[in-house]
Design goal:
This is Methyltransferase domain-containing protein. It comes from Blautia ammoniilytica. This protein is α/β, with parallel strands linked by helices and 819 residues long. Helix content is 35%, strand content 25%. It folds into 4 domains: 253 residues, 3-Layer(aba) Sandwich (Rossmann fold); 237 residues, 3-Layer(aba) Sandwich (Aminopeptidase); 74 residues, RNA polymerase II/Efflux pump adaptor protein, barrel-sandwich hybrid domain (OB fold (Dihydrolipoamide Acetyltransferase, E2P), Beta Barrel); 237 residues, Vaccinia Virus protein VP39 (Rossmann fold). Strands 10, 11, 12, 13, 14, 15, 16, 17, 18, 19, 21, 24 and 25 form a 13-stranded mixed beta sheet that branches. Helix 1 runs antiparallel to helix 8, helix 12 crosses helix 18 and helix 19 runs parallel beside helix 22. The termini are far apart.
């Protein structure tokens, strides 16, 4: 360590507490949201869990705290032990269960111990100016960035006043302004003499910045833009007064690396193209059919394999078709598709017989270089394919004796970031269930994850068959995962399912080599103690009874007549709802919208729309009494609740978002009406049966993960003869980000693209978005045994007569239902 580096480190160790206090002010003030908005708008358009972010010179951990709190993963480095310890304390204090989203390293910013092309984003603040060799630092930061990755450097000419008299006068003026406003002086609260002595020894104090930075980064083959007004958007008033003479700038540098052809074995493929052929592995012992697709733009590499079990045909055919269907023009990165791994057994139509004779390849990873044949194949796949991949997708189905429910495994025994990304990859799959694996090796995807490669295994089809619909579904799932990873362009597919976690999976093997008679089918639900099947001998004598240990769902089972001793018989597990975070995401979204939503509902209450809405409601009430007990479900800011309370009705409004309920209470108080408001889930009502005369809802059903359950609850709490009014629309079919048809003053134009993208993300996770409405609603309500039901498709034309701030371009429908 040079004397200068030692002096810099020792100085910042003394600044640990004071600097942390400055960061805490930012966390508790307006700066936190300002910084978040700025950073998120600059980040690459990829799922936040898959972004790799490096914070260099993290100090007390401001960036890791705000970014990990939003679900990002951050690697944070600092040269100063004291700063790292304080950063860890702050992460523990502010992040709770998200603290494992941050990894800390003591490291020199000028000599990083990371591999080339590792990070999507490198961020740093107030660091470059006090580095002895900033050129070397910039070279390192660009080196560890992925092609297309972004460096965001926030800095200023902090000590230019040591070399420029005009800057000295401006600096002195800052000190006067701070004293005049009776604020803390951020310079005088430090050992300024010691800091100035360091500043005189580092090169950037006397440079003209950011022009110097722009020149250096351009020479490093980065595309550079500079924002000299960024301080205005993220600094507090106190910071602006302290640093008025040294405004902070942002340098945004995108790594421009030549995206060249890619070679794998004998195949070479150019950007925007694909190559088909055979890949020779294991010193020529194995030859596997593959396709390599090189995206038009730089990006990560995904390995997709099929046929690890030679009789699982849905996965194999899906890989064959994906090799032709994936559009290289829409890709950023590279996809390696191996269509059949156990090629020899597949071509001999051995299916499960090969596993009985040769062993189960998916129990042998990472394999052995000098082992048996399948162990050598596993070893070759690991060394020559997995080690080239950033992500891994393994395609399976039921073997020739297996019936299964469609589901997905994700790797659960790896570092926290790998497990989290694997889990989010699994959540993209349109299947009812997902299972977290709890082993490290054996199967291909588990071993890959143990090496830091996020991995999933998809299961569809079985019984030695395949059909076009199963293949279409598996291909759609693969494309959706690729989109999530930022590798494939295009809109997300609508889905039927959002996979629920299945835990405590039981793998039950047969004890005899005879006949098997299942009592249920794959995908069936059952209760603890239910008989799931019998093993009998050739005279029909019961040898074994398979009884469920717990409530659960059957994932797969033997469907052939025979079972093998110590071979698979049935596999099932318990459905868990604890990791279904859709409601949390929905609540967070509407929390962010609650303030503007309250303002709009307040304005709407005093607009012509209020009387139009009441006219429609009056028509639906018909001869009902003048004082009804009404439940307003998903009341939001209380628009319907207030309108109906003004008519003399007893109204209870419920909403899942606490901030909406606060707004509703405020609006009712302003309007001088008495309503009761409660935070409550529309799908699980905390009311007795038969207690309301009327249930009303507007623009809620489309946001519910389980709308059919909600309808059941609403009908349950209605009195006999009571009626439900549901005003909704097919919002799931529209692109929320397209606001071109809306007036300029409309709320959706005020929210910004980030919020509308978030809305679309949520919609794609809700099954109701893919339903044909209101036909689906009518069918669902009819199954609940309602007395009468009708639908009104003309409600929008009677309510939204003007294209104003309240205008709704999506045609609404009204469902009127009598119990």
């Amino acid at each position: 360590m040079t004397e200068l580096m030692k002096e810099i480190k020792d100085y910042w160790n003394t600044r640990t507490e004071g600097y942390s206090e400055v960061n805490e002010k930012e966390l508790l003030g307006t700066q936190k949201e300002a910084w978040l908005m700025l950073l998120k708008n600059k980040f690459p358009q990829k799922a936040r869990e898959s972004l790799r972010i490096l914070d260099i010179g993290t100090g007390p951990g401001f960036f890791p705290v705000i970014l990990a709190g939003e679900g990002y993963y951050v690697d944070a480095v600092d040269y100063t032990e004291g700063m790292l310890e304080k950063a860890k304390e702050n992460v523990e204090k502010y992040l709770g269960n998200k603290k494992d989203h941050v990894s800390f390293y003591r490291m020199d910013a000028q000599d990083l111990d990371f591999q080339d092309n590792t990070f999507d984003v490198v961020i740093t603040r107030n660091l470059t100016w006090n580095l002895p060799d900033p050129v070397k630092a910039y070279r390192e930061w660009i080196r560890v960035l992925c092609p297309g990755g972004q460096l965001l450097n926030f800095d200023a000419n902090w000590y230019g006043y040591l070399y420029d008299e005009e800057k000295r006068l401006a600096y002195d003026k800052d000190r006067e302004n701070v004293e005049k406003e009776n604020l803390d002086d951020h310079y005088l609260c430090t050992d300024i003499d010691r800091m100035e002595e360091i500043a005189r020894q580092v090169p950037l104090s006397g440079k003209q910045r950011p022009s110097w930075d722009e020149k250096v980064l351009t020479e490093l083959h980065a595309s550079v833009t500079v924002d000299t007004d960024v301080w205005n958007r993220v600094w507090s008033t106190e910071e602006k007064l302290n640093y008025g003479s040294t405004p902070m700038f942002m340098i945004q540098a995108v790594k421009q690396e030549l995206w060249e052809g890619y070679t794998l074995g004998d195949l070479t493929v150019q950007p925007g193209h694909r190559a088909h052929g055979f890949l020779t592995l294991g010193n020529g012992e194995f030859s596997l059919p593959i396709t390599v697709i090189r995206g038009k733009n730089p990006g990560k590499t995904v390995l997709i394999t099929a046929g690890i079990h030679p009789g699982e045909y849905v996965g194999i055919q899906s890989a064959v078709e994906l090799a032709e269907d994936l559009n290289a023009e829409k890709m950023s990165g590279t996809v390696i598709l191996v269509k059949v791994v156990c090629r020899e057994a597949f071509e001999a139509r051995k299916g499960s017989a090969d596993m009985a004779e040769s062993g189960n390849l998916n129990r042998l990873f990472p394999g052995k270089r000098e082992g048996k044949k399948l162990e050598r194949l596993a070893f070759a796949v690991v060394k020559e394919l997995q080690e080239k991949a950033d992500y891994y997708i393994d395609l399976h189905s039921g073997d020739d004796y297996e019936e299964l429910a469609s589901y997905v495994y994700y790797a659960g025994r790896a570092d926290a970031r790998t497990v989290e990304i694997s889990r989010h990859m699994a959540q993209q799959v349109d299947v009812p269930y997902m299972v977290q694996s709890d082993v490290v090796s054996g199967s291909a995807y588990n071993y890959a994850a143990s090496q830091g490669i996020p991995s999933v295994l998809l299961e569809r089809g079985g019984m030695g068959c395949w059909d076009a619909e199963e293949v279409r579904s598996m291909k759609r799932d693969v494309r959706t995962i690729l989109r999530y990873l930022g590798i494939y362009d295009g809109h997300k597919s609508y889905r039927k399912y959002y996979p629920l976690e299945v835990k405590n999976v039981q793998y039950q093997d047969a004890s005899y080599n005879v006949l098997w008679y299942p009592e249920k089918k794959a995908g069936d639900l059952f209760e603890s103690g239910d008989v799931l099947g019998y093993v009998r001998d050739y005279e029909g004598k019961e040898l074994e009874c398979c009884v469920a240990y717990s409530d659960g769902v059957i994932l797969y089972q033997t469907r052939s007549l025979q079972v093998l001793q110590d071979g698979p018989m049935i596999t099932y597990g318990q459905i868990s709802y604890e990791n279904d975070d859709r409601k949390e995401r929905i609540t967070n979204y509407w929390t962010k919208r609650s303030d503007s939503f309250l303002k709009q509902r307040r304005d709407e209450l005093h607009s012509p729309l209020a009387s139009r809405w009441m006219n429609e409601i009056h028509k639906c009430m018909q001869e009902k009494g003048s004082k009804l007990k009404i439940l307003d479900v998903g009341c939001g800011a209380g628009f319907f609740s207030v309108l109906l309370a003004k008519e003399g009705h007893m109204v209870t409004g419920i909403d899942l978002t606490p901030n909406m309920i606060e707004g509703a209470r405020s609006l009712a108080k302003e309007e001088g009406v008495n309503c009761t408001f409660q935070v409550m889930d529309a799908e699980t009502l905390n009311f007795e049966d038969n207690c309301f005369d009327m249930v009303i809802s507007r623009n809620l059903t489309w946001t519910l993960p389980n709308a059919s359950k909600a309808y059941g609850e609403w009908m349950r709490v209605l009195k006999k003869g009571g009626f439900m009014l549901n005003f909704d629309a097919n919002y799931g079919l529209e692109d929320s980000t397209d606001t071109s048809s809306l007036p300029k003053m409309h709320a959706h134009n005020m929210l910004g693209s980030d919020m509308m993208r978030e809305c679309d993300e949520i919609k794609h996770q809700l099954p109701i978005s893919s339903c044909s409405r209101p036909a689906w609603d009518l069918q669902t309500l009819e199954t609940l045994g309602v007395k009468r039901i009708y639908v009104d498709l003309g409600i929008s034309s009677r309510i939204y007569c003007e294209k104003d701030e309240f205008y709704n371009p999506t045609p609404m429908f009204l469902l009127w239902t009598e119990k």
